[in-house]
Amino acid sequence: MRPINSYVYLFKYAHSLEAFLLKAREEDQKIGFVPTMGALHAGHLSLITEAQKHYDLVVCSIFVNPAQFNDPADLAKYPRTLERDLELLASIHTQAVYFPEVDDVYPQNTTTEKFQFGQLEEILEGAHRPGHFAGVGMVVARLLRIVQPHGLLLGEKDYQQCLIIASLVHQMGLTEQIQLHFCPTAREVSGLAMSSRNERLSEKGKELAAQIYLIIQACRDKYPHFTPVELSDWAMHSLEALPDTRPEYVAFADAGNLLPINGWNESKEVRVLVAVWVEGIRLIDNARLF
Ligand code: AMP
Prior knowledge:
By secondary structure, this protein is of the alpha/beta class. The protein has ten helices and ten strands. It has helices at about 15-25, 40-55, 70-75, 80-90, 100-105, 125-130, 130-145, 160-170, 205-220, 230-240, and strands at about 1-5, 10, 30-35, 55-60, 95-100, 150-155, 180-185, 245-255, 270-280, 280-290. The chain has a seven-stranded mixed beta sheet with strand order 1-2-5-4-3-6-7, with helices on both faces. A three-stranded antiparallel beta sheet has the order 8-9-10. Helix 7 (about 130-145) crosses helix 8 and helix 9 (about 205-220) packs antiparallel against helix 10 (about 230-240). The chain is globular. The termini are far apart. The site of adenosine monophosphate has 17 residues, from helix 2 and strand 6.
């Protein structure tokens, strides 16, 4: 543990973070937790700022979790900007940062808890990234055991992940102890959802990627006039028509379980969810339709 200024305590090891948080809990401090994979941007910082409104002590973790990458090349290329991340976190007075190595999260000779999420882990992102949500469940369970937060803040940018983690918290029997906060997606002025992966796009790529949100917004205007299948076809074709762009899916789904809908009256709340490759980089976005 070492403070880099009067505000931030840095932890590389779970045991020292646990000791620090034990003391905070004894002083009756309420702990808010924001797990991240670093390469921080204003979207991540908005979660921390929201956490600071509700909790006395906010912990941010920075850990690129190998278990949730099904593609080793994607893991290798994931941006890592630790020094800058720590500066950003200090600038908004984040109290504690945990930035472990792999061994500290997954110690050798210990078994890691595994969870199953049924259909939710097999559709949409789960279908295109096999094993991804099992890996997310594994790391978040471990982090929750270490931090034991009162509140967990997650971004709706990864909407399916929000539902997976809600299920995880339920399966761990922590629903009473941990308040979940699903926070709105922070966007660039262009509408592009902020993402660590955007750093790998060219300026032209960012312009192309901004079309994703324009198409999402067009779906909001058009939906009463089309069936979900027709609208999805339209959106897929619109994305396919862009250079260097390859859509994987545009799905309309029930907001509660993400199962696809065939008619608008099948569900009270519907979300549109999109995955698109732009310049070889996989981007996701989603929004509430109604
Ligand atoms: P990541 O570092 O991508 O694993 O994201 C860490 C947390 O930040 C997750 O809860 C994400 O959903 C959230 N997040 C990522 N991008 C955004 C964004 N543009 N707006 C709000 N939250 C975000």
